[in-house]
Amino acid sequence: MLAGRLPRNSITCMFTTARASVEHSLAKPAGIFRILVLGDSFTYGVGARSEETYPSQLVGLLNQRGASHPRIEIINTGIPRYWTEPERALLEHYGLKYAPDLVLVAFCPNDVLDTFCGRDDVIISDYGYMITRDAAKLGPTALFLYEHSGICRILLRRYVASQRSKRPLPRLDEIYRADGFHEKDWRAIEAEFGRMSELCRSNNVRLVLVHLPGDGFEERKSYPARRLSEWCANHQTQFIDILPAMKKASAGGVPLYYEKDGHCRPVGYRVVAQTLFNELVEAG
Predict the structure, then answer these.
(1) 3-state class of 215 per DSSP?
(2) What is the arrangement of strands in the sheet containing 71-76, beginning at the earlier edge strand?
(3) pLDDT digits (tens, 9 = 90+) for 12-49
(4) Distance, C-alpha 24 to centroid of its chain
(5) Which residue has the higher pLDDT, 117 or 238?
């Protein structure tokens, strides 16, 4: 079970499931500007090769600027199923040991749902991945079938959904409402951002919050960006909203997300990387 203050062995176990195309020394090399990226499966880069994730594309763009700029190093600690609380724990107990100059925290709307479900809803599997307790109860054989059989995946999802429906469920649509069902979860997320801000400030590190939207660009889905922007303005924190760029790119008819699971296609991650590059360079 995850605890409020995660023990070192749990942090290490979960961190090893993060995606990295290169290994990084704990000590920062001289002349390097180091960026630590926190996030979930979108930051990990589900649906893309390692070099196609937005952190990998971003570091490539930054290091193409020439010798007059410092060499950039990005440490991608995105882990599928993560949300704001474990991201803060990773930063506090592990990430800051890498002495980053800048921390990017990628917020996805499903972080609100995961905050609602909380730590007690997930465990760490034998393979080091976070899974729901309902899934863990199915046993290793069922998990194997889930990974290797499309029919079994459908049946097992329906079974797990039926078990979870016996408990209070999060309300997806109310993620995008002020003072709605998830107001308590929004406040918990903002409290975690506050802790991240204090951690960064005490270590002389800049913090940037990034809004990574899911698929679909109807007006109601702009609420997370408006709320995060307001929080950042009140806490002297830079905010980058990816939603406008994704909406503009989608107007060209190129699909940015996979229909199956809603994760970005490589072209979608490219839009994220280019937007971050433009905003970070403009901000100096």
Answers:
(1) coil
(2) 71-76, 32-38, 102-107, 206-211, 238-241
(3) 333 444 565 567 888 898 999 999 999 999 999 999 99
(4) 20
(5) 238
Contact residues for 6 (Cβ-Cβ < 8 A; gap 6+): 14, 86, 89, 93
Report how far residue 190's alpha carbon sits from residue 203's, in angstroms, rounded to the nearest whole number: 20
Closest C-alpha to 40, from 87, 80, 95, 100: 80
pLDDT of residue 121: 67
What does residue 188 show for φ and ψ, rounded to 5 degrees?
Answer: -65, -40
Closest CA to 250 of 264, 229, 234, 235: 264
pLDDT band at 164 (very low <50, low <70, confident <90, very high): low
Sign of CA pseudo-dihedral 144, 146, 151, 156: positive
List, in sequence order, the alpha helices (H) in 5-149: 8-15, 41-44, 54-62, 84-93, 110-117, 133-136, 139-148
Whole-prediction pTM value?
0.82
- The answer to whether 240 touches 270, Cβ cutoff 8 Å, is no
Identify the band that residue 279 occupies on the pLDDT scale cut at 50, 70 and 90.
Answer: very high
Q: Which of 229, 274, 239, 268 is nearest to 41 (CA)?
A: 268
Provide the total of helices (H) and of strands (E) in the chain, helices listed first: 12, 7
Residue 73 is encoded by which pair of tokens? 């190093």
